[in-house]
Design brief:
With 271 residues, this protein is mainly alpha-helical. It has helices at residues 2-14, 38-53, 68-82, 120-125, 129-144, 147-156, 158-165, 170-179, 187-202, 210-221, 236-250, 261-268, and strands at 96-100, 108-110, 115-119.
Length: 271
């Protein structure tokens, strides 16, 4: 009976559209299919975090005891975003943040359940704390809006996820956990995460369109320098335009700071 009910809900959801009635929300319509409960998001995220901790060759996490100042900065930024009042699962997820020591990678990602990872390459590449806050807001949105489950559905199929939800295939869950960091979000999810980044930052002291600066810098450097993880994402120019449009609709702060001593100190605290 439980299997029939789940399958019915799947079919019902597949024939529905995502409601986009919030001001400035993305107009795209993601699949909006989520077979996992909120608790399963939390458990999956913890499992992914454990896999990352156990693979220092791929994910050389910066030691917090050795670099406490750097972690003080990254946690201060994270806390400001989470306390914006717009993060839906602010009180549900772990929202732990780690710094990955890799100066050659311009990236950040967030697992289900709120485990956030930021590469030193991205931190050093950006010019202001607002910019990093914008990118982090984008990644937090992927977890907060539970985009990963929809992406897993697209990548692995409904039957696979049903077997996991029903507890019939625990080994596949381990495999999925290991592969989560390689999942590629849809263009629709990326646009929605950009929108939510603005929404999160709008209630902070940060420039609400901070995420646009990353794409502007990528554009200024030329197409050949676009990171691989952006290859299937919306065009950077379109993303800048869309982020600024959402910021305009919310009438939030877009003023670029004249100087950013806090961010300079953050960079200086890194190896």
């Amino acid at each position: 009976m439980r299997s029939f009910t789940l399958l019915f809900l799947v079919l019902l959801t597949l024939n529905s559209c995502k409601k986009n009635d919030e001001e400035g929300a993305s107009t795209c319509t993601p699949l909006n299919l989520n077979l996992f409960s909120l608790q399963q998001d939390i458990e999956l995220g913890a499992q992914v975090a454990a896999e990352i901790e156990n693979d220092p060759a791929t994910y050389p996490i910066l030691s917090e005891s050795t670099y406490p100042e750097a972690y003080g900065h990254i946690r201060r930024i994270t806390t400001k975003i989470l306390n914006s009042g717009n993060v839906k699962h602010q009180g549900d997820f772990a929202w732990q943040v780690k710094i990955i020591r890799d100066d050659n990678t311009l990236n950040a990602f967030c697992t289900p359940g709120g485990y956030i990872y930021v590469y030193t390459g991205l931190i050093k590449y950006l010019d202001a704390e607002d910019d990093l806050a914008g990118v982090m807001g984008h990644e937090i949105a992927h977890a907060d809006q539970r985009h990963t489950t929809e992406t897993m559905t697209r990548e692995y199929g409904i039957n696979t996820l049903l077997q996991i939800v029903l507890g019939n295939d625990p080994s596949t869950l381990v495999t999925l956990a290991k592969n989560l960091t390689d999942l590629k979000y849809s263009r629709c999810h990326e646009s929605e995460a950009d929108d939510y980044s603005v929404r999160y930052l709008a209630n902070t002291t940060y420039r609400c369109n901070g995420a646009a600066s990353f794409f502007e810098k990528i554009q200024a450097a030329g197409g050949s320098s676009v990171p691989e993880f952006l290859s299937t994402h919306p065009d950077p120019g379109n993303r800048v335009q869309n982020i600024n449009a959402v910021a305009d609709s919310k009438s939030c702060n877009k003023t670029i700071p004249a100087s950013d001593e806090d961010y300079a100190a953050f960079k200086a605290s890194l190896p």
